[in-house]
Amino acid sequence: MTEQKMKEEQERRKKKEMEERMSLEETKEQILKLQEKLLALQEEKHQLFLQLKKVLHEEEKRRRKEQSDLTTVTSAAYQQSLTVHTGTLLLSMQGSPGGHNRPGTLMAADRAKQMFGPKLLTTRHYLGLDTMSL
Q1: 2, 7, 8, 80: which has the fewest Cβ within 10 Å?
Q2: pTM of the predicted structure, to 2 decimals
Q3: For residues 119 and 58, what is the distance between their CA atoms, to the nearest angstrom?
Q4: How far, in Å, CA of 28 to CA of 36, rounded?
Q5: Closest Cα partner for 130 from 77, 64, 73?
Q6: pLDDT digits (tens, 9 = 90+) for 73-85
Q7: CB within 8 Å of 133: residues ≥ 6 apart
């Protein structure tokens, strides 16, 4: 009986070793698969980062272009408003024929007020068009 017990014990040990070897091999395979998956995810992360960088760059270019266009439009509108204001000033200096209860010629003091008017801020080009007093 002792021989039989020893054989059984040996078989159990062999079986246990075999299971351990299999689990080691399985663990190694799992590690390899997880490493491959990690590499794939790192590459995907890299690609997504590059894509984000490109999108942010395009957005910055678009924002700068819009800002430039807005500055150009604002500048043109400011120039136009100055032209209209100057033309109105010249017309009012010449006098308005009929209907406005004004004489055809202006007195010298009135003409000076219209020409030089109230002091305008030198920084008014930084303000919006609707806040300027023309």
Answers
A1: 2
A2: 0.41
A3: 44
A4: 12
A5: 77
A6: 777 777 777 666 5
A7: 118, 120
